[in-house]
Amino acid sequence: MVNDTLKMAFRRRTVKEGLIIHSDQGAQYANSEFRGILKAFNAIQSMSRKGDCCDNPVVESFFATIKGELIDRQSWINKAQARLAIVEWIECFYNN
Q1: How far is CA 36 from CA 20, 43, 49, in A?
Q2: What is the pTM of this model?
Q3: Which end of the chain is more exposed for a tag (fewer CB within 10 A), N or C?
Q4: DSSP string, 10-68
């Protein structure tokens, strides 16, 4: 889901070379497919140090907010339903 979301964001917006993508050390951000997508779009990954929530405060704040407002409050039947809820939350609530 993370890789699909990243590709969707790159397709929807103008991506300038050197764009910095902040993330934590989760496996979904450390895998070769995610890093390959970043490389294809000439983006740079900024990964927080282990146990250092202050390293990427904006990202940490976003993840804390989405978990508290959406993810921890619901469960979904399948991946498609979760994806739809997350996209709707980001596009209709968070980005506004």
Answers
A1: 14, 10, 21
A2: 0.54
A3: C
A4: HHHS---TT-EEEE-S-HHHHSHHHHHHHHHTT-EEEEPPTT-TTSSHHHHHHHHHHHH
pLDDT higher than threshold 80 for residue 66: yes
Buried b (16+ CB within 10 A) or exposed e, 5-34: ebeeebeeeeeeeeeebbbbeeeebeeeeb
Q: Which of helix, strand or coil describes residue 3?
A: helix
Residue type at 36? G
pLDDT in tens, 7-59: 888 888 888 888 888 877 778 888 899 999 999 888 988 876 666 656 667 77
- Which of 91, 86, 22, 29 has the alpha carbon at shortest distance from 57? 22
Query: 70: Cβ–Cβ under 8 A, 6 or more apart, which residues?
Result: 85, 86, 89
